Amino acid sequence: MCVLMIHWPGIDTVLLDMDGTLLDLHYDTHMWMHILPQRIAARDQISTEHAKIQLFKPFENKARTIEYYCMDFWSQHTKMDIMDLHREFADLIRFLPGAEEFLHHLRASPLTVRLVTNAHRDNLELKNGLTGLADYIEEQISSLDFREPKESQQFWKALMTSHPFDPKRTLLIDDNEDVLDAAANYGIAHLLSVKRPDSRAPEKHGSKYPAFSEYTQLLPISRSGNAQRT
């Protein structure tokens, strides 16, 4: 397996996405693409495919807006308690393979490590409680705190104001290409994508950013040289 040669001495800050980067996106995919449409279909006595159209069609132009990531917004739209539904299937929440080991290495390093997510705070709290994610990352930042999604330049400006960092010495790992584009436009120098954000889905290919299949490709973390295979 190819090891990504990350120049760790050139990095002071690591910014990590949550869903599809540290945590398996299968949980969210299953919730939004299967469970929720099925519940709407059963309630409204329509087909599941019709329920999906009813659920997502009105919001095709909101995919990169803060409303798209707000649980309260979706609860109002669906007339369902979305967080209750998430709690019902919370046993599907888990780390991606190797992500927890990677966090162990980051925790032991002198690097500043922050979680930056579009997830609602209630969703973040649920996942913290089940995975212990907060034990590895002291600072957890939701874009909803700034009322701007990570796809927006305003998010990165607000993050800089509240949690200053040097973009040239910062690594962002995210499975969302639009977020990586926004970070690149802001000037973040080190960007990594995830080939398999959903463990039950095939690998993604064609990213314009360096991408990894397994977290072992990023280890070990060293401030005295590039990542080397152990």
Which helices and strands appear, and what pairs or packs with what?
Elements: E1 13-16, H1 26-44, H2 48-56, H3 71-78, H4 82-88, H5 99-108, E2 112-117, H6 121-131, E3 139-142, H7 153-162, E4 170-173, H8 177-186, E5 190-194, E6 211-212
Parallel strand pairs: 1-2, 1-4, 2-3, 4-5, 5-6
Helix pairs in contact: 1-2
Notes on the protein architecture:
Helix 8 links the parallel strand 4 (170-173) and strand 5 (190-194). The protein has a six-stranded parallel sheet, covered by helices on one side. It has two domains: 8-24 and 95-218, 3-Layer(aba) Sandwich (Rossmann fold); 27-91, no CATH class. 33% of the residues are buried. It contains eight helices and six strands. It is an alpha/beta fold and 230 residues long.
Keywords:
alpha/beta; 8 helices; 2 domains; Rossmann fold; 230 residues; single chain; 11% strand; 6-stranded parallel beta sheet
